[in-house]
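User: Design a sequence. Structure:
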């Protein structure tokens, strides 16, 4: 089991490139199921979750070839097994994103229920209800979603909660449905827009992506396309926080501030100086920062995937911060680990009160989920002495070569086996 060993106290300096977005890549890979023509994706991040999704698609009969450094060509012309088995789905919930495309393309699907995960129960009831509104017959038996539909038909769908992958699943299913589908209370995340842009390049008729009402006029069939995956806004935010909390000065290339306004605003409130360019962001800061209170909510509000990283920032900031998590019911597990480094955090329900302390001291800690791992890396970079982070397979799901990139910025960090 790999671990990360970090010697804290180095202000990050220099520049790195941000990879393609995990949460855009995963639905985009599933979009290949909608056509028998080749879908060419570039700027694909090399992540465990992407490899898991590719293995899942290949066992369905999808042909995958690598082209240049980080490009893929997927061809689902040979799709012959519209199934997502439990042993593959249990390691990655986003496998549920195959349900809509399989149903739309083949008229049937057998997809394992994802099951919960560390941060919450994470049901898929909204995905299922939406597909049923489009005429799918769906049973849930022995942990599998069994779905069939001669041809999905357009429907007006109101999602009770804003759900990112729910919106994406329904958008992909509606692309080949008979008639117009309108999704109300849709997720507005940039990754939803990236998927809509790719679907339209494939010949779909999606409008309103990025707003809370998306309409999709179904077409008979979709063609292939070439699509460059957008930059990862959460990787971007994570590196910005790491640079700010260590009092560093960095330039992040291949990304943009336009996709994470709420995070940029909070970092400015904390005292960081940030300049956004078309294809890069520069940040400089002096430690300690000012504590910043925040409340997570669907885009464009403050993203839940950045809550843990900001908790690390607040642990060593001036003053106290109130942090409220409104999306997931159990997304404060990193607090327990931060306390081992000397943090002062009180949890009550879905709110954490963080009091800044003069310094954190290195210790052995354990990653519990993807963004909690990132939080512990940030804390290790600023703690005095050595921090050893265990179970970093969580980290490898969502961050490409994180220790190489941080070393490029001067961090003393290495992977130990
Ligand atoms: C996506 O997950 C992201 N994953 C998550 O990123 C992110 O944290 C989340 O959106 C919120 O922004 C991908 O895009 C692959 P939701 P998703 O459906 O779609 C409830 C990371 O770290 N809900 O938007 O699964 C749900 O329980 C990951 O990269 C239902 O009740 O999240 C949650 O409370 C973690 N029923 C809320 O809605 C449903 O059918 C929002 O969840 C669907 C969701």
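Assistant: Done.
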């Amino acid at each position: 089991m790999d671990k990360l060993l970090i010697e804290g106290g180095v202000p990050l300096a220099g520049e790195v490139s941000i990879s393609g977005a995990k949460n855009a890549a995963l639905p985009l890979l599933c979009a290949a199921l909608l056509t028998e023509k080749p879908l060419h994706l570039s700027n694909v991040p090399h992540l465990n979750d992407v490899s898991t999704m590719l293995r899942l698609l290949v066992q369905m009969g999808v042909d995958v070839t690598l082209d240049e450094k980080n490009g893929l060509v997927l061809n689902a012309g040979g799709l012959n097994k519209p199934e997502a088995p439990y042993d593959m789905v249990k390691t990655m919930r986003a496998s549920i994103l195959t349900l809509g495309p399989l149903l739309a393309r083949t008229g049937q699907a057998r997809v394992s229920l994802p099951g919960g995960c560390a941060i919450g129960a994470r049901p898929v009831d909204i995905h299922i209800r939406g597909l049923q509104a489009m005429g799918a017959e769906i049973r849930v038996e022995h942990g599998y979603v069994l779905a069939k539909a001669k041809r999905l038909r357009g429907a007006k769908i109101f999602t009770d909660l804003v759900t990112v992958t729910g919106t994406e699943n329904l958008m992909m299913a509606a692309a080949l449905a008979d008639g117009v589908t309108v999704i109300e209370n849709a997720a507005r995340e940039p990754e939803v827009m990236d998927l809509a842009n790719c679907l339209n390049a494939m010949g779909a008729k999606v409008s309103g992506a990025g707003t809370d009402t998306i309409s999709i006029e179904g077409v008979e069939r979709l063609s292939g396309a070439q699509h460059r995956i957008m930059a990862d806004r959460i990787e971007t935010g994570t590196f910005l926080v790491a640079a700010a909390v260590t009092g560093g000065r960095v330039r992040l290339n291949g990304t943009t501030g336009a996709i994470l306004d709420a995070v940029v605003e909070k970092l400015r409130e904390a005292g960081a100086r940030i300049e956004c360019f078309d294809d890069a962001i520069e940040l400089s800061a002096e430690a300690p920062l000012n504590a910043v209170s925040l409340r997570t909510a669907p885009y464009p509000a403050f993203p839940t995937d950045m809550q843990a990283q900001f908790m690390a920032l607040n642990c060593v900031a001036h003053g106290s911060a109130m942090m409220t998590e409104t999306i997931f019911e159990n997304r404060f597990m990193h607090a327990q680990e931060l306390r081992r480094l000397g943090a002062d955090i009180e949890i009550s329900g879905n709110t954490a009160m963080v009091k800044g302390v003069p310094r954190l001291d290195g210790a052995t800690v354990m990653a519990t989920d993807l963004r909690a791992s990132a939080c512990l890396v940030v804390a290790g970079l600023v703690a005095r002495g050595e921090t050893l982070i265990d179970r970093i397979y969580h980290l490898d799901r969502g961050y490409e070569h994180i220790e190489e990139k941080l070393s490029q910025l001067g961090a003393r960090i290495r992977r130990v086996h």
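The mean pLDDT is 96. The chain is about 30% helix and 25% strand.
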